[in-house]
Amino acid sequence: MTTTLDFTPRPGAAPLSRMVLAQAGAEMRAMLRNGEQLLLTLIIPVLLLVGFSRAPLINVSGSRVDFVTPGVLALAVMSTAFTGQAIATGFERRYGVLKRLGATPLSRPGLLLAKTVAVLGVEVIQVAVICVVALAMGWSPHGDPLWIALLIVLGTAAFSGLGLLIAGTLRAEATLAAANLVYLVLLGLGGVVFPVARFPEGVRPILELLPITALTNGMRSVLASGGGFPAGPVLVLVAWAVVTLAVASRTFRWE
Amino acid sequence: MPDAANTRPAPGADGTPAVEVRDLVKRYGRTTAIDGLTLSCARGRVTAILGPNGAGKTSTIEICEGFRHADGGEVRVLGLHPSDRSLKARVGVMLQSGGVPPAMRAGEWLRLMARFHAHPLDPAALLDRLGLSEHARTPYRRLSGGQQQRLSLAGAIVGRPELVFLDEPTAGLDPQARYACWDVVTGLREAGVSVVLTTHYMDEAEKLADQVIIIDHGRVVAAGTPATLTGAERQLRFRARPGLNLDELLGALPEGSAAKESPAGHYIIEGQVAPGLLATVTAWCASEGVTAEDLSIERRTLEDVFLELTGRELR
């Protein structure tokens, strides 16, 4: 009680960049500190990468690690941008965190920007870890890293839109359940480790419209085959991003 | 208590009140929570909003904070519409509960709040002032209820705001924590910060507030300084044998006095407590052959006023 504090009003907002970085830093620390999140963002992708590259569980032409790595990178993007973000945001809404942030100088667009920066920051860590593990197992990547960066950014936008759409409308518990269920379904259907070619011909065109399939196929066409601009997957991801973000911005309830 | 400082001109160069609410209406479905409420909170002063549960305190404060929209009437905060973005930096907010991610450490959250402002208070010093230094590294969910309240208060003032809204800042606090909170509110007032708080504690309003506003059923039922609300009237109370005939005593008392027995054996004389009153009452007791016990002269408390205005039934 001996500290002197000068309460004399001296209000003022910090520059937007400082607010966004501060909030993004806090969100990144929260994601990396949370055990369940870490399981989702790092441990499961790495286990799948090692497991499916080593064990003869799938039949692919060529090296298994070359097939599995692009899928696992796509899965990492989905786990952070969609599952992790949906669950975290759902509980932030429940605990009044979003409401309280609404009373600070950080604007809502600023908050969304901070969330995006945090998600991209975690993805950088995920990509680095997955690449190191894959390279250690003999992965030989091809293609232009620029297309990979583009796919990751578009995938992040599409999955963030989907995640925020769920988190902004459902209760926190329902968001938790829905986000995990969708994660599992998309993991199974989206060609992450099981090739889409194994599904019946009739459902394949539908599966290819899923954001996870688009991201996986795009990553694989560049990294495994050294393909150029992945036009089809980019189109699908842009469509998902535009629709989900537009609907989410209309339906999102902050309280 | 704050009479001495009342002579100092209030800050706020443009002369507008800190908060001005006129004919405010808020409905939730078919329920009218706020029904034509009008109030004004002066700059540089502490205003306490009192009212029973469901009276409309939190709704009013959350409309001023910009969290909810009014269905009617006008609200001005520092002369601006509550949704004006420039208010975010100038107004500090303490929610009734929550607002902090459960896993975030106390010090981490306060530093984050500080980073949103251009000239914040030192978060470590503020934690110290509120007795939270030892808990700086404790996750929010592991703090006690009182510690969470104090952290929330710290978050409301760390940006050095001109105006703070505190929604039940001391609910559930132990006496030490309450005094620490009162100490901060007093410090804010001395520094020229306008404070608007809601509370259920009458002693808190009496001690801290320059102005008390009592609301019930979404309307203001009384407003004024604690002293004007409790009035100049005094009461003389004593205990004696039940069933005394008070008519004779009333005849001996000055005009405008009232005497009643409530409950049995407890007598209350209301009116001008003139020097002769005590002598009159004791003389009458002597003539009745009874001894007056626990004889005392008291002012009405804010609680008496509150219960008179809002009734005693539970809600």
Structural notes for this entry:
The complex is a heterodimer of chains A (255) and B (315). Chain A is 71% helix and 0% strand. Chain A is built from ten helices and no strands. Chain A has helices at residues 16-33, 35-54, 64-94, 97-101, 108-136, 145-167, 172-189, 204-207, 211-223, 231-251. The longest helix of chain A has 31 residues, at 64-94. Chain A is elongated. In chain B, the strands form three sheets. Chain B has a six-stranded mixed β-sheet with strand order 5-6-7-3-8-9, sandwiched between helices. A four-stranded antiparallel β-sheet of chain B has the order 11-12-10-13, with no helix packed on it. A three-stranded antiparallel β-sheet of chain B has the order 2-1-4, with helices on one face. The model of chain B is unreliable at 1-11 (pLDDT under 50). At the A-B interface, helix 1 and helix 4 of A face helix 2, helix 3, helix 4 and helix 6 of B. Chain A: It is a multi-pass membrane protein. Chain A: InterPro entries: ABC2_TM, ABC2_TM_bact-type, ABC_2_transport, Nod_factor_ABC_transporter. Chain A: It is found in: Cell membrane; Membrane. Chain A: Its main location: membrane.
